Each structure stands twice: as structure tokens, then as C-alpha cells.
Amino acid sequence: MDKRNLEVCFSPAVFKLFENPGSIVVIIDVFRASSAICTAFANGAVAIIPVAEIEEAREFKRKGFLVAAERDGFVLDFADFGNSPFNFTREKVEGRTIAYSTTNGTQLIHKASSAHSVVIGAFLNISALCKWLTGQERDVVLFCAGWKDKFNLEDTVCAGAIGERLMASGKFSTICDSLHASMDLWSIAKTNPLAYIEKAAQRSRLRDKGLDDCIEFCLQTEFTDIIPVFMNKILKPLGK
Amino acid sequence: MDKRNLEVCFSPAVFKLFENPGSIVVIIDVFRASSAICTAFANGAVAIIPVAEIEEAREFKRKGFLVAAERDGFVLDFADFGNSPFNFTREKVEGRTIAYSTTNGTQLIHKASSAHSVVIGAFLNISALCKWLTGQERDVVLFCAGWKDKFNLEDTVCAGAIGERLMASGKFSTICDSLHASMDLWSIAKTNPLAYIEKAAQRSRLRDKGLDDCIEFCLQTEFTDIIPVFMNKILKPLGK
After folding, report:
1. Alpha-helical regions (H) of A48-152
2. Which helix (H) or strand (E) holds A163?
3. Do A201 and B175 touch (CB under 8 A)?
4. Is the bond leading into B62 cis (omega within 30 degrees of zero)?
5. The domain spanning residue A124 has which CATH number?
6. What is the pLDDT of residues B52-68, one digit of tens each?
7. Number of domains making up chain B
8. Predicted ipTM of the assembly
9. Model confidence pLDDT, tens digit, residues B39-56
10. What pTM, to 2 d.p., does this model score?
11. Chain A residues whose beta carbon lies within 8 Å of the beta carbon of residue B200
12. Which residues does chain B have within 8 Å of residue A176's beta carbon, measured at their own beta carbons?
């Protein structure tokens, strides 16, 4: 069959240019939503419900759900914990459904919802993700979350790392300059992703808030084989 | 004084995030508008009037102006020539005012008009441009034209080349991931920009239309010292 199309979208603000009803959209928000979601499922969470509004998250708490919720790095008073991947320990999340409060993430999922499938991508699940994407007969859009509609480095180099593997499979072709740029940036970053990401704006923001303890963790690969997939407004591990 | 802020905007779709009334905006459209405009002034054009609508361009022709106008690579029947830099020869443009039909370019200039100044940047005028920008006490936004609101490689590596020079001056600082990405991509491209740009989508589009004879020309530096500046809806050489 014809090769499938692979593209990278750098910002939610331009995602409409990448809308493709037959495609699989991979949402990438390395610091920290994608990484936290992968960690939660790796530690046995059953489902994650993305929630946009604080009041909605509070309502889930009243109903007995675990609630992960923060704004600008501060855990909301009614929540069980914030959005760091380190919060989603097996002890806390195994067998539980989690309401995950994220204004940005919820908007991303909403924007991507016209696609055939929406999955979550991170360094943590990159091998399983790329193997699965290669086995599907569908176009793929790597959708970088960015930062307040701006381009960011960490999601882009992750897209580049995914792009490198998918292009190497021989199953994809592209005329997307953003993919070429992502792969070229990854070619620089790959020798030492932790050092490369030092200059990223989000690196500084997390450091300033004392939330940067998870950076190295978020950049590791081979952490989990789970691919979170979004269906009926809920994230679940693919195939479960 | 404090260092000035340097940022790169990858797409007209997100320029509002970079609006800054005190800044100098550098519009970069390497293939081919920025390069054509620099060439026209280098060859003695007096002024260039960016025109959005075809009917408006036709009206300028009736009034006796030179008109450069094409759509999708085809010269419009009433125009004197199309948008290739090679059309703007000294023989044709010296002492003349040119109506330049460009839907995209006109929109870019309009979007940027809230800034303190709007100038045109290209590889062709990079040295004079960077020297001038370094001498101003203003923030700078490098505004990549992109392609139909998408990121493109050629404008980005040009922004990276400009960024490299400005950052080396010690007068600028940044927390802009797009600038870091541009400079990193330029660090790969700079050993052979012509070879690097082979994979750019616009490279293929121009080849398909037989309009790619100007690629190598557009990538050269030190072609002109002129900095086109936009004032009162007209482009003129800075200082003239």
C-alpha cells in the first residue's frame, strides 16, 4: 500500500491545519502531563478522566474519585495530589480511576477529537508507541502541546525521536517541514537529552517552582509498554 | 542597559503571542518575497507598494506603476512580471515604484503593524540587517512567513542565522524556545544551506513549477546593505 503520511504540529493554535479524520493523533506533553499519564497506567490506574474546570474536579472528589489537580504548580486544596509523575505511585493509583485536572490537556484532546484515534505519547512509552503506530495502516500526526500556544523544545524533540523511529520503519513518508525540523533537533539532543533540554523555557519554569525533580525521569525511555488511548472522554490503556 | 529580548515567531497564526509595541519585527520570507524585495531595492527601485487584491494591482498598472504579480506561480496577464528576484533587474526597476501583489505578505505586514518598526529580512541583507538591529535599543521579533500558516524550514534557518549573529553581539537575551530551535537548525544547515534546504516542502513546490532557479541566489549573503522598512503602507530602503 501507499506510505502513510507523518506530520508534526507544533502548537494547538494551528492544529486545524492538521485535521485528518483518518489519522491517529499522538498528544505529546513531556513536562509533565503525558509523562504523568503514562506513569499512572504503568502503576495500575484503571482510567483517567481529563477534567477542564476546577469545579468539575471538586465534584469528582466528592464522588470518591482520586483527583490530581494543580494550577501554576500549586496543588489545589481539595485534590489528592498535583500533576508530577512521582505522585502517581502504585500505592496510590492501583485499581483506581483518576480525575486529572488540566485545562490545556483537555483542550488538546478536544481539538484532536475529529481524528480516528487519540493516544498519549512520551519518552516513557516511546518504544511500544512506535511499534504500535507502525503496525496501524493510518496517517499519524504528532501533536506537540507546546506552552500557551507557543512552540516548545521538549515536546518537539520527543516528536523528533518518535519521527526518527517511524521514518526508519519505511512505512511513512512526509512533506512536513516540522517533522524534518523535529528530527534534526532530536539528532542534536539525542546524545544527551537532559543537557539539551537545559535551555528549554519550561525547564526554567519548573526549576523556579521547585517542580523539576521529574525532568530526568520524564526523559527516560523503556519505562512502560502502555499506550494511553482516549475513548468516550476517558483515557485507558490501549487494549484494556 | 538591560538586554533586549529576542524571539522567533514560526507562523502568522500565532503572531499575536509576540505582539510588542516597542519591538522591531523582521519579516522573513526567503522563497521568495523577502529576497525579491531586497533585490529590487539593490537594483535601484524607489519604493514597493504591497498590494493584497488582484483588482488593486490592476488599478496600479492602469496608473502607470510597474506591477509584479503572480498567483500559484503564474504571472497575471496584466502584470509586468512575476515574483522571482531575477525579474527585478536594474534595467526594469531603477527609479521606479513597484506594486507588489502578495496576499500572504500583505497579511504579514498588517499583523506586524502594531510594532515600533517593520523591516524585511533575508539572507541577502543579513549582515547589514544584523548590524542595524544590534545598534537599536529595541526588542526584536523574527517573524517567519511560513507556508499557509505552517512552519517552514527556509525561513526558520534564516531566523536562526540572524539569531546567531544577534545573540553573539551580547546585546540580546531570550527565553524563546523557537529561537533556540532556529539557531540549532541553522547550526546544522550552515555548512551547506543549499543541500540542507533540499528537504524543504517549498523547495519541491518551486521545482515542480519550474520556479526554483533562484534558490541558490536567495541563500547567498552579502548581496546588499539595504534594509527595506515599511512605513505608511509602503516599503522603502531604510534611511532613504
Report:
1. 54-62, 90-93, 103-112, 126-135
2. helix A153-168
3. yes
4. no
5. 3.90.1560.10
6. 889 999 999 999 999 99
7. 1
8. 0.95
9. 999 999 999 999 988 999
10. 0.96
11. 177, 180
12. 201
